[in-house]
Amino acid sequence: MNSKNIISILSALLVLFGLTSCEGEKELVIIDGNLPIKTSTLYMVGDATPNGWSLDASTPLTASDEDPLIFFWEGPLNVGEMKLCLATSSWDVPFIRPLNAGQEINKVGLTDETFKMNAGNPDDKWKVSESGIYNLRFDLRNWTMSASFIRNQDSPVIEPIETDVLYIVGDFNGWNIENPTPLEKKSDYIFEYEGPFTTGEMKACLSTGSWDVSFIRPETNGCKIDKTGVESSNFVYTANPDNKWKIEESGIYRITFDLQNWTIAVEYTGEFKPSPRLYMIGEATDGGWSWDAATVIEATTANEKIFVWEGELGRGTFKASEIKDFGAPFYRPTTPNCEVSDKGVASTEMVFTESPDDQWLVTLAGKYRLTFNTDDMTFNAEFLSESSSFPSLYMIGESTEGGWSLDNATEITTTTENVYIWEGLLKEGTFKACFTKDFSAPFYRPSIANCEVSENGVANNNMVFTTDPDDQWKVVKAGKYRLTFNIAEMTFDAIYLEAATVVPPLYIIGDATSGGWSLDNATELSPVEGVDGEYTWTGNLKLGIFKACSQKDFSAPFYRPSKPNVEISENGVAENDMVYTKDPDDQWKVIKEGKYELTLNIKAMTIKAKYLD
């Protein structure tokens, strides 16, 4: 068998059996187009789609009754980009993409255009150049897609926005959603702010602390603000698409929002020269790889070409940039992993370039004074003291309580540098650990694939810190364990403490539930004491569909009815049988809205529904 056939077969198996891990690595994995893509689910994501770049709220397409491998969707598309995936478990899964990056979807339409499917780079996407109501058709049997324009989108209904507070957030204040800039309320619906703005983007909001809310935005992305005012006075109030105003010239501006008529007015009132600053990111910094939490380093008053910062650095890498953009040039060392330690920095030479992606590597956590001299292109690091606190280590995987959710990762703290000890329950399944809540960041892993953890401890103590291959420890016996991660000696130990009955969680999701299709907001059922495998929940169900799961992972199996659209109404559930499978994607259908008591038994594989009112 030649290598091409082997690659084709392996690619087919990847699609046929689903994507069972939540974090493949960012290497190019191309799926061969000669075989059908067999899946029961298809989702689209992007700022062109109704729910933007939220993977948890990605927009599902509907399979055709005539051919389950042909998916349709009809609805609004905004100006922006989009791509599609079979599962919403991770950004690292293969995505369906155009053959040519930026292939346009507009009023002209597309007919039977061939698409490709790959994970990682190149991250090609379709570009919607004209907003409107579209009909999309994806043929996963023949690897083609079509897009037809139906009509223009409806104009938004303008209703006065009632609020006592209004904030603006953007590049000018570091995108700090915890502490956005407040406006002054002049009357019931008029809010005003006057102050300095740097070049960059901005939008407005009614609350702090969350990006998952509706924002006040321009009708089109990149609406310009400069000395002449604002390009368009109209705004919209919506969660998506993520349109923002673009400030073309730094200066002092007076900005007025009219929340009754949904308009914005901008007046330039004076010059403003922002002080130069650098943004430092990386797993060695407090903010990790997040631009929103990047470490800001201001230029010194004596010399705007010299930037000095003092603070705590953890073990790991970092680099610095003048703007918050991963595609921009960075200040870097001239060699990969240039070490920063109690001895200072291995080499003081510095470059300003997009590639290669060389970074400084902190090998000893502690308090440092860093000096970036962008005039003579040198970098210095002075070790001040050992760290008084150490970063948390996070453990994720189906064997952990939080599953593959980084938001619910198991946190491990330490008071001793380099040694992290955790004690608790592990289920059967795999896990790995990281310092940065980012699936593309390096993870602590076993040195061999599926290294077993059992009552006998761990099969191999060697540990690595790498992005790939995606090797994980595999718990083959559930129970209570004491785990020890020694990141200095790169060893891992597991001591089995006692047997434990691990009761898996059970959740319901779907548009019939309060949390919708968001796994983060899934409704959790309560185990029934003394009844093996039985769970119960009482609450309101809306008209719609739902299914149940033990893992917050769309690619994992779900508890479902044994046939499509089994009805739940005031008469209970039409059929009590339940199955546990990935597909077909059958779901229960609530046809009578109201308060219910649900009882699911994952041992007997039954469901009961009692209508209360």
Can you offer a commentary on this structure?
- The chain is mostly beta strands.
- 2% of the residues lie in helices and 45% in strands.
- Strands 1, 2, 3, 4, 5, 6, 7, 8, 9, 10, 11 and 12 form a twelve-stranded mixed beta sheet that branches. It has a six-stranded mixed beta sheet with strand order 14-13-17-22-19-20, with no helix packed on it. Strands 26-25-28-33-30-31 form a six-stranded mixed beta sheet, with no helix packed on it.
- The chain starts with a helix and ends with a strand.
- 35% of the residues are buried.
- The model is unreliable at 1-33 (pLDDT under 50).
Which shape, going by the Cα principal axes? globular
Poorly predicted ranges: 1-33
Q: How many strand elements?
A: 58
Percent in strands: over 45%
Q: What profile does the largest beta sheet have?
A: 12 strands, mixed
Helix content: under 10%
Mean pLDDT, as a whole number?
Answer: 88
N-to-C CA distance: 64 Å
Number of helices: 1
Given helix and strand content, the structural type is: mainly beta
Question: Rg from C-alpha positions?
Answer: 27 Å
Structure, briefly:
The chain has 613 residues and is mostly beta strands.
Annotate the secondary structure layout:
Layout: H1 3-16, E1 29-30, E2 43-45, E3 59-60, E4 62-63, E5 70-77, E6 80-85, E7 95-98, E8 104-105, E9 110-119, E10 126-128, E11 132-139, E12 144-151, E13 167-170, E14 181-182, E15 184-185, E16 190-197, E17 200-205, E18 215-218, E19 223-226, E20 229-230, E21 235-238, E22 245-247, E23 251-258, E24 263-270, E25 277-281, E26 295-298, E27 306-313, E28 316-321, E29 330-333, E30 338-341, E31 344-345, E32 350-353, E33 360-362, E34 366-373, E35 378-386, E36 393-396, E37 410-412, E38 419-426, E39 429-434, E40 443-446, E41 451-454, E42 457-458, E43 463-466, E44 473-475, E45 479-486, E46 491-498, E47 507-509, E48 523-524, E49 526-527, E50 534-541, E51 544-549, E52 558-561, E53 566-569, E54 572-573, E55 578-581, E56 588-590, E57 594-601, E58 606-611
Parallel strand pairs: 8-10, 19-22, 30-33, 41-44, 53-56
Antiparallel strand pairs: 1-9, 2-3, 2-6, 4-5, 5-11, 6-7, 6-10, 7-9, 9-12, 11-12, 13-14, 13-17, 15-16, 16-23, 17-22, 18-21, 19-20, 23-24, 25-26, 25-28, 27-34, 28-33, 29-32, 30-31, 34-35, 36-37, 36-39, 38-45, 39-44, 40-43, 41-42, 45-46, 47-48, 47-51, 49-50, 50-57, 51-56, 52-55, 53-54, 57-58
